[in-house]
Amino acid sequence: xxxxxxxxxxxxxxxxxxxxxxxxxxxxxxxxxxxxxxxxxxxxxxxxxxxxxxxxxxxxxxxxxxxxxxxxxxxxxxxxxxxxxxxxxxxxxxxxxxxxxxxxxxxxxxxxxxxxxxxxxxxxxxxxxxxxxxxxxxxxxxxxxxxxxxxxxxxxxxxxxxxxxxxxxxxxxxxxxxxxxxxxxxxxxxxxxxxxxxxxxxxxxxxxxxxxxxxxxxxxxxxxxxxxxxxxxxxxxxxxxxxxxxxxxxxxxxxxxxxxxxx
Length: 263
Hints:
By secondary structure, the chain is of the alpha/beta class. About 35% of the residues lie in helices and about 15% in strands.
């Protein structure tokens, strides 16, 4: 009988969850325990000035924050971790996951309904309609912004039951007009060399997403430099954090995590 201790199992990478525009870490409230149950340390990043009661008036400085400020906030979370993480982002959080990944060691990318970078934007009439109430107000690009109910119901929460959609919309917080402007115009702060992102990636998008639609997800999949597992969910809109849709998304993420090569 050998006296040698059994070899230790490879440590699972931590996961950093990054919320989208007008969102908070609360969108991951049900997914986090399920990912933790797989053995991963899971941390939810809080973007600057997003940890506020949505009923409060926005701080004026919020509108002047840029993508670089959001990247720096996520980097601080990553740099506190014991190992390179999987970066999991929804919507704008998917854009940030890619931008951060270009700057730090990471184990993989999970991009759910990812927002654009400079190289992956795919403008659509549906996105224009969704954002019209925000971007037609003079000075929006230097002011705090928040999407109205009717636009959000049509372009973000399409397919979501009314009661859930309204409750989730009421939890949205103010966000930076400058960040939105940088994203929709493909500003320098959103430019990266996707070929350098060689870690495995999972991309999930709904075919009925009206604000960051499949065109963006497909462009992202084509540009990433590593192996990409790409899923389009028929009939699903931008908001996956409810009911059976959330179950399917979380299960797909869990399955993909289980196939990640050991560190």
